[in-house]
Amino acid sequence: MARVAVRSPLAARRVWDDPSMGAPMFAFRFEPGDRAAVQAVAQATSAGIDVDTELGHPWSLFWVARSGPGEPVVAFLVAWAVADELHLIHIATEPSSRRRGAARALMTALLEHAGDHRARLVLLEVRRSNRAAIRLYRNFGFTAMGVRRGYYSDGEDAIEMMLTLDPTTGHVTPGRDEVQLAEA
Asked: Residue 47 is part of which domain span?
């Protein structure tokens, strides 16, 4: 089961050391200069996000992934912090940069934030057909808790997933699926 260490927030987090994956990926907090690159990733991935609107919400959390300081943004993550919960709103990776650890770096940053801020739950919805994302979330300890039928504009269902954290330690609390993905 994945463990999230409680520690002080870091500006960047390196999470991929497999040389076959190319350059390691780091997660950085969003900075104003990242706006155009995030918009380009959003457009390339059909992620319906209005960066300016998200930045205007005091509850929005925003990270970007790149292979190092000053390198191009290849992915982004937006989450909302509400009470003792985090809700993953968008995570998107430039298509040519997929499977290189960018999403893993972003998820690690999100879960470190959750532990540092004593979050109890992390929630998300994922397309039923997005098996790579479901595997990623499962590797972090997420469980399937429900189905939102016809959730996406094209009519595809969303799988609702949840990660429970011990707010004292930041460690993942083991859970089990409420619905079977094969049935969902």
From this structure: 9-118
Buried b (16+ CB within 10 A) or exposed e, 126-144: bebeeeebbebbeebbbbb
> What whole-number distance in Å separates Cα of residue 90 and Cα of residue 181?
21
The one catalytic residue in 54, 112, 137, 160 is: 137
125 given a catalytic annotation? yes
Mean pLDDT in residue range 115-126: 95
Average pLDDT over residues 56-81: 94
**Is the pLDDT score of 96 beyond 90?**
no
pTM score: 0.85
Q: Note whether 31 and 76 are same-domain residues.
A: yes
Total structural domains within the chain: 2
Is 94 labeled as catalytic in the residue annotation?
A: no
